[in-house]
């Protein structure tokens, strides 16, 4: 069964807006310069899931590259519970869900 472009089977239409909680986690680690494999290990997900989060967020926001994504994200909207990741603490245990 194929999905319509821009539509999530559980969450409905993908409209521009701030990142979802897991997307924030991925973005904050990407911002620290971590590769997909390191992000995946840190979050307990697969590298392809990391790439999927980044791809869907870029597509939803109409952004062409990861570098542009990191520049255009509204960092001030980052949830306060992710402040440790925001600070760049690479040794902190993986965030809970």
UniProtKB/TrEMBL annotation:
Q: What is the lineage of its organism?
A: Bacteria, Bacillati, Chloroflexota, Ktedonobacteria, Thermogemmatisporales
Q: Where are stretches of biased composition, namely Basic residues?
A: 1-11
Biological process, per Gene Ontology? regulation of DNA-templated transcription
Q: Which domain of life is it from?
A: Bacteria
Q: Which InterPro entries match?
A: Sig_transdc_resp-reg_C-effctor, Tscrpt_reg_LuxR_C, WH-like_DNA-bd_sf
* Keywords per UniProt: DNA-binding, Transcription, Transcription regulation
Q: Which organism is it from?
A: Thermogemmatispora tikiterensis
Instruction: Spell out the Gene3D superfamilies in the cross-references.
Output: Winged helix-like DNA-binding domain superfamily/Winged helix DNA-binding domain (1.10.10.10)
Q: Which residues form the HTH luxR-type domain?
A: 15-77
Return the protein name.
HTH luxR-type domain-containing protein
Q: Which GO terms describe its molecular function?
A: DNA binding
Name any one Pfam family assigned in the record: GerE
